[in-house]
Amino acid sequence: MKYRACHYVGNHQLVMVEKELPALKVDEVLIRIEAATICGTDFHILEGNYESVPPLVLGHEFSGYVAGLGAGARSFKEGDLVTVEPHIYCGLCKYCRVGREHMCTDRIAFGVHADGGFAEYCIVPERTVYHVPEGISPTVAALTENIGCCLHGIERANVKHGDHVVVLGGGFVGIVMAEFARSSGAGKVTVVEPNEYRRSVAKRRGFLTIDPLREDVKEKVLETGHGLGADVVIESAGRLETAAMAIELADRCATILYFGVVPPGLMMQVEPNEIYRKELTILGSVRNPYSHYRSIERLQSLQLEELVTHHFTLAEVEEAFRIARQGEGFKAAIHPNA
Asked: Can you say how many angstroms the Cα of residue 331 is from the centroid of all Cα atoms in its chain?
């Protein structure tokens, strides 16, 4: 059986191809892709700033309907709506054996090292497939992996009741991190975002907002904090400027979480005495260890439908990337079987 797929062939190029479906192995599940959302990682791959093994089908955030089952795959039936946790870990390296699989030295990720969701079909091992409860759309289900990453990040940030949390960047993950900060007990959540539309959505959701193009961010944070900086700063924009700003906005004994992906190779100056003097805790957060199941349980409460602002067919994938890169809305979704 042949199917259409969007191949990343290297050198910043996406090409529509026709592929042949291989026979299913005993533990594999064939998924008819219903929705696949574009992630910042996809941009980094296209720009040559992220590990990948072209040629391959990009897209690691996807959902779809079970269309076939290997002889040993018994947890699903054809027609089930499912989402995929897009990582396979070796199970043998140090990190796998100490409960930190997401740091696996021999990890394989769909959409990065193996074919992902920007195609009509995808074959994955049964252990990476999760049921989607009734009432959740395929588009929202496609966001599960991203939500899992946010869950891991907010748990590392350790937001406490009454904390003032500042989120730098009000894109999709910025809004989700703000929601998680609030549900973790934050007393005030401020979203710093230059895009007027994104800022209006954050404000409508009940968050304080700052326009960094028109307002002094540090001054506004101090004003909100009664003369004090933020207890937790979450960098979700993936920009060098906001990465540096995070240290400036942090109060004494604050936690800074670097969640956005600043392109590799970029450097910023940090005054070690500032970290020492304030007793800052500086953390990173990568991927979604053991959080995919829990993120499914949070999908309905996050009002995610409005955060998927653009929808495209598979043939329109290049336009989808253009729109997503410009940041005109929030998430862009590709529907390969539309």
From this structure: 10
DSSP result, 201-224: HHHHTT-EEE-TTTS-HHHHHHHH
**What is the rounded distance in angstroms from the CA atom of residue 152 to the CA atom of residue 166?**
18
- The separation between CA 135 and the C-alpha centre of its own chain, rounded to angstroms, equals 22
**Model-wide pTM > 0.90:** yes
Backbone angles phi, psi at 272, to 5 degrees: -55, -35
pLDDT tens sequence across 144-168? 999 999 999 999 999 999 999 999 9
Tell the burial category of 82 from Cβ atoms under 10 Å away from its Cβ (0-12, 13-18, 19+).
buried
Q: Total domain count for the chain?
A: 2
Long-range Cβ contacts of 204-207 (<8 Å, 24+ apart): 205/175, 205/178, 205/179, 205/303, 206/182, 207/167, 207/178, 207/182
Whether 198 and 129 map to the same domain: the answer is no
- Structural domain contains residue 299: no
In a domain, 295, yes or no: no
| 232 and 115 within one domain | no
The pLDDT tens digits of the residues spanning 223-272 come to 999 999 999 999 999 999 999 999 999 999 999 999 999 988 899 999 99
CB 57 within 8 A of CB 33: no
Mean pLDDT in the chain?
A: 95
Q: Residues 234, 235, 237, CA angle at the centre, nearest 5°?
A: 140
Tell me, what's the pLDDT at 326? 85
The whole-angstrom separation of Cα 164 and Cα 334 is 36
Q: What residues pair up with 255 in beta bridges, in sequence order?
A: 232, 281
Do 111 and 204 belong to one domain?
Answer: no
Same structural domain for residues 161 and 218?
yes
What tokens does 190 get?
Answer: 């401020």
Q: Facing residues of 164 across strands?
A: 188
Q: Are 252 and 207 contained in the same domain?
A: yes
CA distances from 334 to 24, 176, 191 (A): 25, 21, 28
* Domain residue limits at 124: 2-143+304-335
